[in-house]
Amino acid sequence: MTDLSLLTLAIEAMEKSYSPYSGCKVGAALLTKSGKIYTGTNIENAAFSPTVCAERVAFFKAISEGETELSAIAVVGGKGGKVDGIFAPCGVCRQVMMEFCHPETFEIILAVSTEHYEIITLKELL
Ligand code: THU
Prior knowledge:
Elements: H1 3-13, E1 24-32, E2 37-41, H2 54-64, E3 70-79, H3 91-100, E4 107-111, E5 117-121, H4 122-125
Parallel strand pairs: 3-4
Antiparallel strand pairs: 1-2, 1-3, 4-5
The structure holds tetrahydrodeoxyuridine.
């Protein structure tokens, strides 16, 4: 699994976004150390607090399936599904990542555009 193919899966996951309130479609693809991939998208709600970010959907899918060895997550997002800049994980998602991942080795792949991306560690993100 290359970084680019993980990013492609994150872009595909954006299509499932339920985001009628913000209009922001976000997709995530989480890679486990065993090579499995769990995707996620943001799911909003009329009441703000039940809204869940794409990253946490991917994380909770993996954790609930017994996957705790995680190596990287690709995150992509944009208004109306148009990717034109990085969509950095929010504080709550960073906290969830810290619970399950090593900050110096877990990688976060952020798309700068549909053609370009950058890779940072969880430690660098924090
Ligand atoms: N969102 C994510 O899915 N991931 C983030 O890291 C930041 C924000 C979602 C939540 C909400 O549906 C929309 O983007 C606007 O904040």
